[in-house]
Amino acid sequence: MRAIYGLYNDPHVAQQAVDNLRAAGVADAEITVISSEPFDHFEFGHRDAKTAMPWIAAAAGAAGLVLTYYLLGASQRSWPLVTSGMPIAPNWTNLIIIFEMTMLSAIIATVITLLVTAGIPSRGGRMYDPEVSDGYILVGVENPADASKLEPALAIDGGRVKKT
Amino acid sequence: MNRTLDKRLADDLVRPLFHTSVWFYAIVVAAGTVVACGAGAWGYQLWYGIGLSGKRWPTFWALYLTNFVFWIGISHAGTLISAILRLVNAGWRRPVTRCAEVITVFALMIGAMFPIIHLGRPWLAFWLFPYPSSREIWPNFRSPLAWDFFAINTYLTGSVLFLFLPMIPDFALVRDRSTGWRRTLYGTLAFGWRGTTKQWNRLETAMQIMAVAILPVAVSVHTIVSFDFSMANVPMWHSTIFGPYFVAGAIFSGIAGLILAMAALRKALHLERYLLPLHFDNLGKLLLLMCILWGYFVFNERLTTWYGNEPSEMAVFWATQRGDYAPLYWTMVIGNFVMPLLILANPKTRTILGTVIASFGVVIGMWLERFLIVVPSLTHKQLPYSWGTYWPTPVELFIMAATFAGMILLYTLFAKFVPIISIWEMRAGLPSRMDQAVLAEERLQSTRLDSEPLGSTAGPEGASR
Prior knowledge:
CATH superfamily of chain B: Formate dehydrogenase/DMSO reductase domain
Shape of chain B: globular
Mean pLDDT of chain A: 90
Shape of chain A: rod-shaped
Distance between the termini of chain B: 28 Å
Number of strands of chain A: 4
Number of domains of chain A: 2
CATH architecture of the largest domain in chain A: 2-Layer Sandwich
Oligomer: heterodimer
Structural class of chain A: alpha+beta
Distance between the termini of chain A: 6 Å
CATH topology of chain B: Formate dehydrogenase/DMSO reductase fold
Order of helices and strands of chain A: EHEHHEHE
Helix content of chain B: over 70%
Number of domains of chain B: 1
Number of helices of chain B: 17
CATH topology of the largest domain in chain A: Alpha-Beta Plaits
Radius of gyration of chain A: 25 Å
Largest interface: A-B, 73 and 74 residues
Radius of gyration of chain B: 25 Å
Mean pLDDT of chain B: 89
CATH architecture of chain B: Up-down Bundle
Strand order of the largest sheet of chain A: 2-3-1-4
Structural class of chain B: mainly alpha
Number of strands of chain B: 0
CATH class of the largest domain in chain A: Alpha Beta
């Protein structure tokens, strides 16, 4: 058996299923919850919420700032042409490009972090049910050691248990 | 959970992707024809030379640059408004954000084309790119045109990503509901999205960071476009007010463009249940605010010029107030200020029709404003011997018409292949979800109070770890 899961149309029941799985001895990391929308107000919606994404974005922005500052200055000094009496590498004007590249670096780093940490793109093949798109919440365990022990935990009010 | 409401929502918003009305083909053919004519006009200009446009001494920036500034301004509808509404978590934003973000992407793409058309020899556009050429000379980073390159490309990249990321869950939904080539197409676009709690948390965090990052970029883009003018010593261009004046004007025209797009979508895709009078009322209030702000900036700019009484500036001033350009100027004032103020200040006329009429006025008025910034100053430079006139040629007008048709065409095609309203965001904002959220919050609060000592700062996620 590859997976056992329950489908619920009420997030309160889905939360109950998650709690039941924990009570049945399943570790948090092994419980998968899949939904067609975020459920920020439920405890199960906060699982895996901790991320270093903001720090990575800030670090990438700082790296973009330093790199652009260096590249602009180096390229301007490599062929020093005086324009309108301005210095060869004027900070006033360079600041504009430095700002844009700082923000671009932060944005691109954010997207890369999202893709890597969220595991997308992926080729599929993992536990999923298309009924999730109709608004059902899937709570399940992949490669369960003892599915018969988990079935009662998932078979609660309004839930449909499936095995694949 | 109200399953009927959930299903109806998804059905309504996915329906346009599976069913094609005759209007879709009519719009595509009509807009496509105009775009083809515009492409032909550009080809004609490329073949016979830039002299076919009306640009000539002293007016070397004319209709193409007017349209460049106009479309970059329109692009401020989307990402900026969407980012602000996301950050303040305005509930009414849900049906509006994607309609708005699409405008940004397409308007930027169209706007960015104009400097290339304006070049006359577009195959040399790469000279503006930051790469060392064979002579090892880099672009002049002190030039506002080089700043434009960086600003527009940053904003375009950020806006495309800001639009695309929240579309991934909706692509997954369409994938699950489709078969055949559609399943393959949307499956590819969904990137294997499943909707795990980790994926949702990452997506929401990424959208928050991007909203914070994209806001100053959006402001910088139009400020830098204004620098194209204000860095030049040309009458009525060399002004410190131009940055905020351009940004305010851009947001103003952007909101107007968004209202027009939403009204068209509401009618064409039967989205009356989702794009409500409330949305038009709220956007109408924003438009009114920007209308007053625009009037404030114009008054400041005009008063300072008039009071300074600089001869070269006064020449431009009077040319627009009571000279050749006066009919355009006063049409602009009526479209941008008088009409929106009268319609939008009154709650009774701030209806869908009222906001649409006001928005038409603003779009026309803002286009005229861009024209009146570019042309009269160049035709009235410091020395009277260098004065000139400008009339747009048919080639320029065809190309300009093609960009408006191009916007309609791109928007129509987008609405045909992508849910134009974010389904997952709409679901999360359903009233039934709000009730559930309140109950869940109460439950979390009581759990926390029962299990933790007073004064503890641990969040609800602490329980799961």
